[in-house]
Amino acid sequence: MFSKVLILAAVTVCSVLAAPQKRLGGPLPLGTAESQAVILAQEQNHDPSGAYNYRYETSNGIAAQQTSYDGANAAGEYSYTGPDGVLYRVAYNADTYGFQPQGAHLPVEPPVPDHVLKSLEEIRANPPRDQEFNLAALDAQIARLRATLG
Fold first, then answer.
1. Fewest C-beta in 10 Å: which of 10, 39, 71, 84?
2. Cα 140 off chain centre by
3. Are 102 and 91 a contacting pair, CB within 8 Å?
């Protein structure tokens, strides 16, 4: 009896999980630009070295492109028209520092305090002798922080 209940419970759980998932916000109304969108342009190139690039554009105003010269670090941008009718554009880098988006609608990092930048520049002038110390990463961080100063 217990095994029949267990099997019935497993079948019920599997049925629920296998059911089609609903889109958040409900289905798209038929005839809208979103439901009728088609791909207008699409390109992709992959190199055996790991380098790649892709680009696409759809009829409902979505566009994206991305390039990577090593397969690990990438730069790109995407744009779309929001529900408010505004065209949103995001440019980004994705590398060892993570995903770094920039867009007119996104908040920006506040300027770095002078004492922090001076401390990093002192470390740069007298780098540690540790083999694991990454001077290039420090240079990139200083450049990024200087950019917050305007």
1. 84
2. 20
3. yes
Look at residues 96, 42, 48, 39 and name the one whose alpha carbon lies nearest to residue 73.
96
Q: What residue ranges do the domains of the chain occupy?
A: 35-105, 109-143
The type of residue at 85 is G
pTM of the full predicted structure?
0.57
What number is the average pLDDT over the span 21-50? 77
Phi, psi of 29 (to 5 degrees): -65, 140
Round to whole Å and give the CA distance between 87 and 79: 7
pLDDT computed for residue 31 by the predictor: 64
Dihedral angle, C-alpha 9, 12, 16, 19, nearest 10 °: 150
